[in-house]
Amino acid sequence: MQTHFEENQATFSMIAAVACEIGEESNANRLVIAPDSPKSEALLDLAGTLDVDSITYLEKNNKCTLSMPVYEYEDDGLHQQFAYRYNISSPREYSKKTHVYEQAKNAVRNGAKSQVAFDMKLARRWFFSFFYKDVS
């Protein structure tokens, strides 16, 4: 994901600028951007080229925050998500040593933890977020 982000950083920046503009124009605190205008339709088409499934805008402390999932799955009471996130106020600490996918998955499945979540910094204001949780 890091290489994918680096290769497409200009596109991610463009998505952030347009998504934040759409969110701010809506005057909503939270908005799942839908293809209901030429601008939002073009934005979602562009996001689709990066395998982004959807874009959620949040206004928090007068700042635009975005969540853009690239993978989400729920089965057998377990929920997992991978997402690009922009301008988050309190990133969850990431450790290359302790946040290994198989270890995180097994810790939740075996009941050692109810969830594992982290935000890996990609660039200024950009993170790759992982979330794995027991929802049963």
Describe the 3D structure:
By secondary structure, the protein is an alpha+beta fold. The protein has two domains: 2-62, no CATH class; 68-134, no CATH class. Helices cover 32% and strands 35% of the residues. It has four helices and six strands; from the N terminus they run ααβαβββαββ. A six-stranded antiparallel β-sheet has the order 1-2-3-4-6-5. Strand 3 and strand 4 (78-86) form a beta hairpin. Helix 2 (9-26) packs antiparallel against helix 3 (38-48). The longest helix has 18 residues, at 9-26. It starts with a helix and ends with a strand.
Low-confidence stretches: none
Write down the secondary-structure element order.
Answer: HHEHEEEHEE
What is the 3D shape? globular
Distance between the termini: 29 Å
Strand content: 35-45%
Radius of gyration over all CA atoms, rounded? 16 Å
What is the makeup of the main sheet? Answer: 6 strands, antiparallel
Structural class category: alpha+beta
Average pLDDT works out at 90
Strand order of the largest sheet: 1-2-3-4-6-5
Number of strands: 6
Number of domain modules: 2
- Helix count, per DSSP? 4
Helix content: 25-40%
